[in-house]
Amino acid sequence: MSAVSRAEYCVIACAEAWRDAGEILASPMGLIPSVGARLARSTFSPDLLLTDGEATLVAPDGTVEGWLPYRQHLTLVTGGRRHVMMGASQIDRYGNQNISCIGDWARPKRQLLGVRGASVNTLNNPTSYWIPRHSRRVFVERVDLVCGVGYDHAAEHPETARFHRVPRVVSDLGVFDFATPDHSMRLASLHPGVTVDQVREATGFELTVPDAVPYTREPTDRELELIREVIDPGRTRAREVPDREAG
Known about the structure:
By secondary structure, this protein is of the alpha/beta class. 26% of the residues lie in helices and 18% in strands. 45% of the residues are buried. InterPro entries: CoA_trans_fam_I, NagB/RpiA_transferase-like.
């Protein structure tokens, strides 16, 4: 089997967000998170619920498994029984996310998606992030507008953030978590071929970096087969992270 591409390491890193998650709704946003969620369901998290994003529950191959009306979807969201993986135009050291605007919200330099459901997501169910192009424009010291709530703001209102948790951030360079005393961002793993210096150079704030940083785990032969031949034979993953061998 050919060498593992960077995109495939990203798929594995996203899939791991739902490892042993039990019967919860996985809501991946983006091509690689979607492949990752389907891979997790097909392997180590068989109880995951997958949605088409509209009104049905689906199997990894797209077969309809059930109906998910919007009111039932909201019940899962507000009860902590969903794990969403969102995107971020900006994210800071405490996991605050911005998808609304760049600059002052009253007179923004650039208008983006809007706050949408980011605050509800982060306060009510676990929320991870997928960032296909790791750069200082995205990983910033302070977001211009808080849409998704980070650990520092959640700590100010613990009663309204009892389900708040940001398990991981996955980028095209590595995996990050908040397993530090102050819940600031930590480098958890590097994708093979990436160095710590590359990550630091592409990050606009001081990361916590352990003395020894592991590499993102290797996919098994079965996982590669599923990714390449069953879940994503059209290589949509390469649209977000162009295929290249690690290293």
